[in-house]
Amino acid sequence: xxxxxxxxxxxxxxxxxxxxxxxxxxxxxxxxxxxxxxxxxxxxxxxxxxxxxxxxxxxxxxxxxxxxxxxxxxxxxxxxxxxxxxxxxxxxxxxxxxxxxxxxxxxxxxxxxxxxxxxxxxxxxxxxxxxxxxxxxxxxxxxxxx
Length: 146
Fold this sequence. Notes:
The chain is an all-alpha fold. The chain is built from 9 helices and no strands. Helix 4 crosses helix 6. The longest helix has 12 residues.
């Protein structure tokens, strides 16, 4: 299965007409799913779903629904919690957000910037991040966003 990057899909769109759109959709459906993305990440980093879930603070059943593909478009905060639980770096987290069709972390948004700083400094503790966010007067991950 030929899976194209987002950049390759952008290039394809430049020459895609409305009549060609069904063919484009076929290509789009070949992109990796969130389930595939986490499976590859876990294998490469030799970690388990149970370890990620334990670190994420999410309920086991809900987290497994995301990781098993039954919930392909979780809320942004639920996905951020899983990415933090997996100790993903910023690029990997951003890619997971794109796959799930959620907004990437954006440096001009104070809450997102605070989360990005923690990820960049390899601070993945949801408790620690939420305490920092609350100290800054920002909503914590999973609070008012799930």
